[in-house]
């Protein structure tokens, strides 16, 4: 029987054999782990059945956490680039020298060209790191730049914008109460592969099974018959980018048929009826391809269900009308009485309430605009789709230095190839990252940090989005290697150095306080953050339960928890309502679609983690999964065949990739996975560089945006043709169309 180090709250000793509890920080499901050690090495990672939220679930990615830790390609010391591109070499640096150099160069750019000449981009893993929450924000704030960017504007800005507009706080996001619902309508999400998003729902497969076993139904609306669609009771193909017409038509039906039962704390129901009057099921049918009768039936089923939850995720967020879609999703839940109802959509109540305690600001909009395109900020950030032009367009306020923190925007933001080229024109770039990848190869200095198994973790963000109220502090399992630094140490050290150089001369007392805060570990801050929590959960109790403390199912909490002025919900938020004209324009006035054009959408696979987890053979062996999925009839119409090498061209670029014929995508739609395209010069990823595939974001377009400023990554118009020189059905004369 292995020793269970349950109460241990320091890293395992050298040569340890036994089991310790850990946590996976790779996705929003935040699974609890049992990590087995043999002679100090990790020899097994399993789900922890004692975890009250994840209940023993683990996915293939979770078991690869130790691969990241032991990856020989991972950076462990600061590195400085000498030369460029394929010829670049990297020199290791001492920490103090590297931190001083970065602070000197960043401060020099700010001094010479102004604070806005320094841009910062925060990537997705920041949301999964306690140290980033407690110390990263201080570093970003210390830059005092308006050119702040993050992966949020290629992901969930529409959700945040609507949460702020309707519920008063950008993180007051309703979460499906999946364990108690009877009808789960999933629009543009694939939790069977992604394990859920803005819905922390470990073990989605078992929860979906339980839904069916208690007589409930799951309906999926998606242009692709996804892994989730395949286990659903019903799947409806929808034309990419058209969902707003579907969702508003459902609102229309509810109001027309008198099926709405909204709570008393909402305003502007009458205005709403006027706004959706022309969004009929017939219009929805023309736009989406879903029959008007099905649109009506879906609306009626929602109204009739005792408990139903409408969930719209990435597919309708990274979308030309993402904000209208998220608005309509909220309105559907409200009108059917499902907001704040058990089995509907509910607000989690985390022990550390980032919303109520204002640890995160409620949100704001258009306090400043981007210099070149004049796009408004949201919640203190500009859309990352403008980053490239802010670097390349000369003039006052031009971005000349860039800091990326746990982000890979070259693969994850629109026109990544163009952004990569722009990076080479910067005066200085620093990346806080663990790999030399497609983005960080452009940096002058890379500052690495420790990885998940070496860090303390408390999920400040995801307990607030989880389908059950739980809290869990998991201490670091592995000792930090000699000469490495935690992310919070790097953030703190840089923030202090920058403050010293950029003339932020605080009074001595304030300076000492700042130093104390920035040098205190996150673990020391947690007891303060826990103070006064609604559960009376003590730090002592939390520390003794690395498997997690169960705080119970989600509970109704409205209108008390609304953060809006007056504690009411506006059903017709002005910002979003203003976008309806643009939507009407697209629905009524657009020219007929070009028959040669196809609409490109993204996808996720179970073994991928955005762009950065391909450097492990555990996750990359087996059948290749990088292909462009195309409907067989779309291939045949062009004289192309399954497996052909194709050129895919959009307004911004083109790529060459093999295709796979499948009826799982609807006609007129093609799909590429996101996060591929690693074989670039200078990328030091020995396994990943050999993984085939191209970057979908060499095709996506920074001009295509939602009202919020979020990139419309999905629904990008593309054309396909046989790649030059490739043998194809057309090229070999094998298809009727060839002559
Ligand atoms: N076309 C298209 N584009 C998309 C998407 C899509 O579906 N389609 N999805 C979008 C979404 S939802 C997201 S969230 C973004 C993600 O966009 P990004 O966050 O820019 O990209 P990631 O691939 O998550 O890159 C994470 C980076 O952090 C590094 N890293 C990993 N762990 C750590 C750590 O602990 N500390 C530090 N400092 N660095 C670390 C990795 O090496 C990598 O460089 O991509 C978006 N882009
Ligand atoms: N395995 C794995 N898990 C992950 C990640 C990963 O990279 N790999 N990334 C994590 C991150 S950062 C996030 S944000 C989440 C995202 O989690 P999800 O929201 O589940 O995202 P996707 O799996 O990309 O699913 C989006 C779906 O939208 C569909 N879609 C595209 N365009 C449209 C449209 O116009 N209308 C409709 N109705 N649907 C459309 C796509 O076909 C796809 O099935 O996943 C997280 N989990
Ligand atoms: S579902 Fe997400 S959190 Fe759970 S093991 Fe997989 S990657 Fe980790
Ligand atoms: Mo994301």
TrEMBL record:
It holds the Pfam family Molybdop_Fe4S4. SMART domains: Molybdop_Fe4S4. One of its GO terms (molecular function) is metal ion binding. InterPro entries: Asp_de-COase-like_dom_sf (IPR009010), MoPterin_dinucl-bd_dom (IPR006657), Mopterin_OxRdtase (IPR006656), Mopterin_OxRdtase_4Fe-4S_dom (IPR006963), Prok_Mopterin_Oxidored (IPR050612). Residues 17-73 form the 4Fe-4S Mo/W bis-MGD-type domain. The keyword RNA-binding does not apply. Keywords: Iron, Iron-sulfur, Metal-binding. PANTHER family: OXIDOREDUCTASE YYAE-RELATED, TRIMETHYLAMINE-N-OXIDE REDUCTASE. Belongs to the prokaryotic molybdopterin-containing oxidoreductase family. This is Unannotated protein. It comes from freshwater metagenome.
């Amino acid at each position: 029987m292995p020793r269970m180090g349950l109460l241990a709250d320091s890293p395992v000793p050298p040569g340890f054999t036994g089991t310790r509890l850990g946590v996976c920080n790779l996705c929003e499901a935040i699974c609890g782990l049992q990590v087995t050690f043999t002679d100090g090495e990790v020899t097994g990672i399993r789900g922890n059945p004692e975890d009250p939220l994840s209940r023993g679930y683990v996915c293939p990615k979770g078991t690869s956490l130790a691969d990241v830790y032991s990856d020989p390609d991972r950076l462990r010391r600061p590195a400085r680039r000498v030369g460029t591109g394929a010829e670049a070499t990297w020199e290791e640096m001492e920490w103090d020298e590297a931190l001083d150099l970065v602070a000197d160069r960043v401060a020099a750019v700010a001094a010479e060209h102004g604070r806005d000449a320094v841009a910062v981009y925060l990537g997705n893993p920041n949301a999964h790191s306690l140290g980033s929450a407690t110390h990263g924000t201080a570093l970003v704030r210390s830059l005092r730049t308006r050119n702040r960017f993050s992966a949020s504007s290629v992901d969930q800005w529409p959700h945040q914008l609507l949460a702020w507009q309707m519920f008063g706080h950008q993180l007051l996001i309703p979460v499906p109460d999946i364990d108690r619902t009877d009808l789960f309508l999933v629009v543009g999400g694939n939790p069977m592969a992604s394990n859920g998003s803005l819905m922390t729902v470990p073990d989605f497969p078992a929860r979906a099974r339980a839904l069916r076993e208690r007589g409930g139904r799951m309906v999926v609306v998606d242009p692709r018959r996804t892994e989730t669609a395949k286990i659903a009771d019903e799947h409806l193909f929808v034309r990419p980018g058209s969902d707003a017409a579907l969702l508003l038509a459902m609102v229309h039906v509810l109001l027309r048929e008198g099926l709405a039962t909204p709570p008393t704390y909402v305003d502007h129901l009458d205005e709403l009826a006027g706004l959706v009057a022309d969004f009929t099921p017939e219009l929805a049918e023309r736009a989406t391809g879903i029959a008007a009768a099905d649109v009506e039936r879906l609306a009626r089923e929602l109204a009739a269900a005792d408990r139903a939850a409408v969930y719209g995720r990435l597919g309708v967020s990274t979308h030309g009308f993402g904000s209208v879609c998220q608005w309509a999703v909220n309105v559907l839940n409200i009108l059917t009485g499902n907001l704040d109802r058990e089995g509907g959509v509910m607000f989690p109540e985390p022990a550390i309430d980032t919303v109520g305690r204002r640890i995160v600001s409620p949100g704001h909009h258009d306090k400043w605009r981007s210099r070149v395109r004049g796009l408004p900020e949201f919640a203190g950030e500009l859309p990352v789709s403008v980053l490239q032009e802010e670097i390349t367009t000369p003039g006052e306020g031009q971005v000349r230095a860039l800091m990326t923190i746990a982000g890979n925007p070259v693969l994850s933001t629109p026109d990544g190839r163009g952004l990569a080229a722009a990076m080479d024109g910067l005066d200085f770039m620093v990346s806080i990252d663990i790999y030399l990848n497609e983005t960080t190869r452009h940096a002058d200095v890379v500052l690495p940090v420790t990885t998940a198994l070496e860090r303390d973790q408390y999920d400040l963000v995801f307990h607030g989005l989880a389908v059950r109220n739980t809290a869990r502090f998991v201490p670091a399992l592995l000792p930090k290697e000699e000469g490495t630094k935690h992310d919070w140490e790097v953030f703190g050290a840089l923030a202090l150095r920058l403050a010293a150089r950029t003339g932020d001369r605080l009074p001595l007392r304030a300076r000492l306080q700042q130093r104390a805060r920035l040098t205190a570990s996150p673990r020391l801050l947690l007891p303060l953050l826990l103070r006064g929590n609604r559960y009376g959960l003590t730090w002592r109790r939390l520390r003794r339960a690395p498997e997690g403390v169960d705080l119970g199912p989600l509970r109704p909490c409205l209108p008390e928890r609304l953060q809006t002025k007056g504690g009411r919900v506006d059903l017709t938020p002005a910002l979003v309502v203003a976008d309806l004209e643009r939507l009407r324009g697209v629905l009524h006035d657009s020219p007929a679609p070009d028959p040669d054009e196809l609409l490109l959408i993204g996808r996720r696979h179970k073994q991928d983690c955005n762009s950065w987890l391909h450097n492990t053979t555990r996750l990359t062996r087996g059948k290749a999964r990088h292909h462009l999925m195309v409907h067989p009839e779309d291939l045949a119409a062009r004289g192309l065949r399954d497996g052909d090498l194709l050129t895919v061209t959009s307004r911004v670029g083109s790529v060459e990739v093999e295709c796979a014929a499948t009826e799982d995508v609807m006609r007129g739609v093609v799909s590429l996975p996101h996060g591929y395209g690693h074989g670039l010069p200078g990328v030091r990823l020995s396994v990943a560089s050999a993984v085939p595939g191209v970057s979908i974001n060499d095709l996506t377009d920074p001009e295509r945006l939602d009202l919020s400023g979020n990139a419309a990554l999905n629904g990008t118009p593309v054309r396909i043709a046989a790649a030059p020189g490739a043998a194809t059905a057309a090229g070999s004369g094998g298809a009727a169309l060839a002559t």
